[in-house]
Amino acid sequence: MEPIYASGMAAKLRSQWDRDDGLGQNHNAVKFLGQDYEALRSRCLQSRGLFEDALFPCTPSSLGFNELGPRSSKTQGVRWMRPSEICQCPQFIVDGASRTDICQGVLGDCWLLAAIASLTLNDNLLHRVVPHGQGFSTGYAGIFHFQFWQFGEWVDVVIDDRLPVKDRKLIFVHSAEGEEFWSALLEKAYAKLNGSYEALSGGSTSEGFEDFTGGVTEMFDLPKAPSDLFSIIRRAVDRGSLLGCSIDVSGSQDREAVTFKKLVKGHAYSVTGVEEVVYRGSPTKLVRIRNPWGEVEWTGAWSDNSREWDSVERSVRDRLQKRSDDGEFWMSFSDFLREFSRLEICNLTADALEASQVKTWSSALYQGEWRKGSTAGGCRNFPATFWVNPQFKIALQHPDKPGTSDCTFLVALMQKNRRAKRREGEDMETIGFAVYEVRGQFIGKSGVHLKKDFFLTHGSTARSELFINLREVSTRLSLPAGEYIIVPSTFEPQKEADFVLRVFSEKPANSEELDDDVSAEMPAEIQLEESQIDAAFKSLFRQLAGPDMEISVTELQTILNRIIGKHKDLKTDGFTQESCRSMINLMDTDGSGKLGLAEFHVLWEKIKRYLTIFRQFDLDKSGTMSSYEMRMALESAGFKLTNHLFQLIILRYTEADMSVDFDNFVTCLVRLETMFKTFKVMDTDKDGFISLNFFQWISLTMFA
What is the predicted pLDDT for the residue at 251? Predict the structure, then answer.
């Protein structure tokens, strides 16, 4: 086991244990990049210096890598200044956070600003993201922190308050008043989380919604809006859900084009309220919308200066109408449906769309990963590999209503950390999922990862509406009670990404990741007495072993490479001393570090068996085994492993092209057998746990 790799695995296990103990909840957020806000702030106060963040420095790399890169005209003349250098009396939040605190700069992150604007409508939500007690007066040390939900856990992000400016004006988000800085600092923290400001350019409002709340987002295609959409929006607003809307563009030249009535295409707006007013004796539904630009407003019916307001009762008009170009405006619900294309609602409890009374949904969250050669199987168009994708089972037992069989649930598949990869030329993968009904022999089983034959003989019951390159794909489904398998995947095989799968069900439902139970069923070893061993084999052994009649590591290496060299159908770069040492460790019953005749005979029979399995699963007769053939071969050899363990094997034993040659195949099986047997010997009470002191641990890991 390589030391660096081992320490990485140890860190991963340690991290999982911490999360199992509650790390990552809003009150116990993960410290991003290990930075502790309170400790850093105390250090600055003691030294009477202002914080400077070395992990997100005030350099061109923090601005961006392409359009905002070091050579871009947009970044020429940019300086980083603290709020106290920009204005005389900087304030963090003045009279509470409001929607007018968020005006867009040169960065194309209107989607994010629309989400921030919605956040200001709910103080409880706002202060989960923007912790209390921050400002520019007592205790100021040039350091601030914000919390974001990231793929299943809350993360605390520390920043200094140096902000990019040109001509003493903020170039990115700013408040309309100019002296309020919470929104600009929030944007900087989110940029740090994603690697740079430019990484925030372009996106879906739902992404910001979810990172501020941990909620789940659903989208509505407004030309096909449900008949009760206005009441859905009203309930969502009342419950503090976050809402965004946009107008589709027909091409790149259409983006941010302004319509005749001053709506911007391809631009993210936030929905901030709904009302029903009496207009000329008839009830009229209105929707309030905000443009993150802080200007450019709808000029049609119910806009700031329209005549419709003259026919509304004065007290209502005084409460609702604002005659200012602040980016916020009213429009009729019918115009809203006609002018806008899409509505996104982020539900904090995922029940706002179902009924007016509060209900609790059953929910589950799973972390997963697609890795080349092990779990990146692609979609159903690739039947040879689709089955290797991670699999999750949900048991729907309680129909939504008495007398019916349908159960409502929502599946949300989110890919992780893709914005930060833009600097490396990568972006969102195309993702989706398929749902299969479980029948027959597989009902009620959990420790089984379904294999290729199942998917070749069973069609999908449901699937995501699209495979698309968005951060998240979510679909609401209604299926009869029963057991179902959810298979999330990238569209093409061999695409690597980490993901989070969330399942929300209308009624309680059990869900779990489907994975093989770890087990080893190896054939019994028959260790013959020397007198029982074939004379020809004895003769061969004498020739190979030399005068001491035992085979050393070097001798075993020479023997195996000579024999394998005669099998022209096998590709191999030869057995290494390390792999031969593993074999001797497995077979060396007397602790001599060498193999006697009986021990070598058992190893020889074992290698012959491995050769038979290798040839059986080298389906294309290439002389090597693909990683997918490898998984089936391991099972044939008696080993059942989880997805995670199989990923480790692929990382360790494959060549650069993800193939496994014969020497690596044998070494892997020997290593697996050694570890299973070692654990079995040490697990004296057969409870699946062993206890080791450090000396025992180091002895085992160094020499097993």
Answer: 63
